[in-house]
Specification:
By secondary structure, this protein is α+β, with helices and mostly antiparallel strands. The chain is built from 4 helices and 5 strands; from the N terminus they run H-E-E-H-E-H-E-E-H. It has a 5-stranded mixed beta sheet. It is globular, with a radius of gyration of 14 Å. It binds tetrahydrodeoxyuridine.
Length: 130
């Protein structure tokens, strides 16, 4: 299994735990650190909808909270035929913590697409603007 396939498998596994009773849209994500660790995350919804957190941010924040600061890639898995790209908030978080990394989009049927985070978030606001 390639590193990419392993990351997709981890995102797929994380998706199993999605808590999405409102949208019923189940999302899994996984980030790989430069140290070789993988952290998965799922979306976690809330009756107060705005408190919902996306799978990508859960995965990244889990890694950050375990002391990781350098990342190689992130994968996102859903059941959608039209692959699911990260939302705007997640693009900002991916850029802030992961920099320019491959964002691997996949679905349960095995469709895979890749886009770099710098392309998903052109002209980002970040610490260089402060
Ligand atoms: N969602 C994610 O977890 N990641 C994405 O990339 C897109 C959206 C979640 C948020 C919410 O729980 C559900 O999908 C529908 O928007």
């Amino acid at each position: 299994m390639s590193d990419e396939e392993k990351l997709i498998a981890a995102a797929r596994q994380a998706r199993e735990y999605a808590h999405a009773p409102f949208s019923e849209f189940h999302v899994g994500a996984a980030v790989r650190t430069k140290s070789g660790r993988t952290f998965g995350g799922c979306n976690v919804e809330n009756a107060s909808y705005g408190l919902t957190i996306c799978a990508e941010r859960v995965a990244i924040f889990k890694a950050i909270s375990e002391g990781e600061r350098e990342f190689e890639a992130i994968a996102v898995v859903t059941d959608a035929d039209d692959l699911t790209p990260p939302c705007g908030a997640c693009r900002q978080i991916i850029w802030e913590f992961c920099g320019d990394v491959p964002v691997i989009l996949a679905n349960l049927k095995g469709k895979v697409e890749r886009e770099n985070s710098s392309k998903l978030l052109p002209r980002p606001f970040d610490s260089s603007n402060l």
